[in-house]
Specification:
By secondary structure, the protein is α/β, with parallel strands linked by helices. It has 23 helices and 12 strands. GO terms for molecular function: ATP binding; ATP hydrolysis activity.
């Protein structure tokens, strides 16, 4: 992670309270931290510390929480988000849960599971829209370049197939010609001698398919490369001339109706309308953020007042009771003030609302110090406190009123300016003026297009004539490799047929062997029955006969078992090979769609071309789904073929990789990983952690990594946040915190880390030291202190001095 990385996720004073039977649980209480691009922030704490609540709040899995959360500069907190902001949130922040099954539907294939977030977030629709915006121009500009690339990859595919098939099929064709089983060998060896054909064939076809997939990806990448070149204007002079004359023709068509002045007014009007739309959308987002900000503080002060009421009702200390009574009514006073100001300050931005609330808080602190702090307990203290607040609490918001008016005036001035400019443009447009162009000009513009097309086609012919020999060589090479492929295909028909015949003769041999064994068993069984019927008293003869019957039965069972095993092995391999056939079929279908994308499969039949272009959007969309899903599986170290399996067919580690692929497929900016390795076998935990770390660095994604395992956090995280009872008690760079843990809770957590050095020591129950909490009770006020560079600790001033001295840190 780079030190100067941009902050992608900003969390400020996040609070989430749960109420149960009148008791408020502060699950998260004023948590603040930032996450930068490519940075991993570790969130550590025991169960119940609030780690998971933070993660779930970020994804808005809880309805109400207080605080401010911005993602890439956009507010994603508050009671209500606009549809566009909600869509932005769902696409750009993803969560990986502890249990992979939480994100995997067991009744759907992996393909369907990974497709779902692409559909919901409209990712593929955006990609398709981007491709279609200049598809026709890209195709026509690089038609011969695409043709050459396609031919080269055709040759590459054929050579890849022929390379392995040239060795494989002649070898087995020779082996299977006049093939005879060697029945002097054991059954297993006889079976393996011909079964190896299927084993080797599976390996060969798997390698061939992987090569074909790789070559197919190259075609897609090549299109994107040329699309970028086109957009960067890296095209030939004749192509530029054609584009310019087409644009000129469109302009002349407009000038048949408008003068030059009116045409400029028409263009300006379009840009002004766009600016107004953007201004109104921004205003809508700002208004929602403004309302959410005020509602956030209203909800917070309600809770604070309620907590103060509950605290004083459960207190036996009169001074503490009085303190919480003051605090309760001061919060209610702030609440009334904010409600009063909410409708007056509709144009303040989120940051300005925060400044307003901070100013009210500062005023409340000054008010408390001046009027309430020295009030002692008396019979009428309630009346006195309420009277002071009613008569004296009067906040002056004048500077924010001015700020609100400035923001309001700025917004309306912008709107008025654009409406004025539109009105001025309309005056020009609706004034009768002589058109700047005539039909003659339109005809000339059309002729320029035709001339440009002619020049373009002539240049293409010249280019084609220059590469004609190269194209012929490629076609000849394709033909040669195709003939080799056909010969090998014929050889494959022979070897497949020969294998089935050899397999049949082998099972005939086993069945004959089974009949013989059954006959021997029946004879021995009859002999035993006869001995028992005649009541032969010779125990030796009876035991020997029984042993022979048992051994004969074992032989029969063994042959039956082998027949079943061998048949299952062959059926399994044949089904796998059959699946390869289907895979190649669908792969070739995708290749044809890529040819459509590249524009190299056009025919002279205009109707056929029309049908292809009509279906192009649908076909290319399906292709984008496939390539995106395959790529996401490859990114997490899984095969493309896994897309068509079900979750139960995978191990725990593979399922977690699929969950990671699902989280990454929408290309999010932030990932919240909630103990993603806790349910995995220890042997694969490191693999998954390394995968997450590599993907965050490679894709520049910020990550909040929630875990209990401190040693794992030390390895993966750039920064750490130690949580206890809803508060961040210590934070900083991983190196700073791990080198000198300062807070008592952090130190106790670190004591619990298992080490090789203490492996032989007797088990010791480590109970976390909570005495520090008593020192933070009224009237002491804890806050965050900087104890070192990039190292912060939460506590009272006296506590910080005591704790830092204990670990050898000197602070000012």
């Amino acid at each position: 992670m780079k030190n100067n990385s941009e902050v992608i996720l900003k969390i400020k004073e996040l609070k989430k309270y749960f109420t149960n039977n009148g008791v408020i649980n502060k699950a998260v209480n004023g948590v603040s931290f930032d996450v930068k691009k490519g940075e991993i922030v570790g969130l550590i704490g025991e169960s119940g510390s609030g780690k998971t609540t933070v993660g779930r709040s970020l994804l808005r899995l809880y309805d109400n929480f207080n605080g401010f959360v911005t993602l890439d500069g956009k507010v994603i907190s508050g009671k209500r988000l606009s549809n566009s902001r909600n869509k932005f949130l769902r696409k750009n922040i993803q969560m990986i849960f502890q249990d992979p099954h939480a994100a995997l539907n067991g009744q759907k294939t992996i393909y369907s599971i990974l497709k779902e977030p692409l559909v919901v977030n409209g990712v593929i629709n955006e990609k398709l829209k981007d491709i279609m915006s200049d598809w026709e121009n890209v195709k026509s500009s690089y038609i011969y370049t695409f043709s050459q690339k396609v031919k080269n990859l055709k040759i590459k595919n054929l050579k890849a197939i022929n390379k392995y098939a040239k060795v494989f099929f002649p070898k087995w064709s020779d082996t299977f010609t006049d093939y005879e089983h060697n029945f002097e060998e054991n059954d297993e060896d006889i079976f393996i001698n011909f079964f190896n054909y299927l084993e080797e064939k599976q390996k060969m076809e798997s390698t061939i398919i992987d090569n074909m997939y790789s070559n197919t990806e190259q075609l897609m990448d090549f299109y994107y490369q040329k699309q970028k070149d086109f957009r960067d204007n890296k095209i030939t002079w004749d192509e530029k001339a054609l584009v310019e004359t087409k644009n000129e023709y469109k302009k002349v068509k407009k000038l048949l109706k408008y003068s030059n002045e009116q045409y400029n007014a028409y263009l300006n009007k379009k840009s002004y309308k766009k600016a107004i739309k953007e201004l109104l959308n921004n205003r809508k987002d700002n208004q929602i953020a403004n309302v959410n900000s005020f509602n956030n503080f209203i909800f917070e002060y309600k809770n604070e007042a309620k907590i103060s009421w509950l605290t004083r009702m459960n207190s036996y200390d009169l001074e503490f009771y009085l303190y919480n009574f003051k605090k309760q009514h001061l919060n209610l006073a702030k609440l009334r003030e904010i409600k009063k100001l909410k409708n007056k300050f509709k144009y303040l931005s989120m940051s300005e609302v925060q400044l307003l609330i901070k100013d009210i808080d500062n005023y409340a602190v000054d008010f408390y110090n001046k009027y309430l702090e020295n009030l002692n307990y008396s019979k009428d203290f309630k009346k006195v406190v309420k009277s002071y607040i009613k008569d004296k609490f009067s906040y002056n918001p004048q500077k924010f009123l001015k700020l609100n008016d400035n923001d309001k005036n700025k917004h309306y001035d912008e709107l008025i300016k654009y409406y004025y400019l539109i009105n001025e443009a309309n005056k020009v447009l609706y004034t009768k003026q002589k058109p700047a162009a005539s039909l003659k000009d339109l005809k000339e513009a059309k002729e320029k297009i035709n001339n440009s097309k002619y020049v373009y086609l002539e240049e293409n012919k010249k280019y084609y004539s220059n590469i004609k020999n190269d194209m012929k060589k490629l076609d000849l090479e394709i033909l040669e490799e195709s003939l080799v492929y056909k010969r090998l295909k014929a050889m494959q028909s022979f070897t497949d047929k020969a294998f089935m015949e050899i397999s049949k003769s082998f099972f005939n041999y086993l069945n004959t062997k089974l009949l013989s064994a059954k006959s021997d068993l029946e004879s021995l069984q009859k002999e035993l029955n006869s001995l028992e019927k005649n009541k032969v008293n010779d125990s030796k003869i009876l035991n020997e006969t029984r042993t022979k019957v048992y051994k004969a039965q074992v032989v029969v069972n063994e042959i039956k078992k082998n027949i079943s095993i061998y048949k299952n092995k062959i059926d399994s391999k044949l089904n796998t090979l059959k699946s390869f056939t289907f895979e190649v079929k669908y792969l070739l279908k995708d290749v044809r769609t890529i040819y459509l994308l590249l524009g190299v499969n056009r025919t002279k039949n205009k109707f056929v071309n029309f049908i292809k272009n009509t279906a192009a959007r649908f076909l290319i969309k399906n292709l984008l789904y496939k390539t995106t899903i395959y790529k996401s599986l490859e990114d997490v170290g899984l095969l493309k073929q896994f897309a068509y399996r079900y979750p139960h067919e995978f191990s725990g580690g593979q399922r977690q990789r699929i969950v990671i692929a699902r989280a990454l497929i929408t290309e999010p900016k932030v990932i919240v990983a909630d103990e993603p390795i806790a349910s995995l076998d220890i042997s694969i935990q490191a693999q998954v952690v390394n995968l997450l770390k590599d993907l965050c660095q490679k894709k520049n994604i910020g990550m909040v990594f929630i875990a209990h395992d401190l040693s794992m956090i030390e390895y993966i995280a750039d920064r750490v946040e130690i949580m206890h009872l809803g508060k961040i008690v210590e934070s900083g760079t991983t190196q700073a915190v791990y080198n000198k843990p300062t807070h008592p809770y952090t130190i106790n957590l670190f004591k619990a880390i298992p080490k090789i050095s203490n492996a032989n020591e007797k088990f010791e129950n480590i109970s976390f030291e909570l005495d520090y909490l008593k020192e933070q009770n009224y009237p002491n006020i804890p806050k965050e202190f900087k104890v070192e560079e990039d190292h912060f600790v939460y506590g009272t001033k006296d506590q910080i001095v005591k704790w830092t001295n204990a670990v050898g840190i000197k602070i000012d």
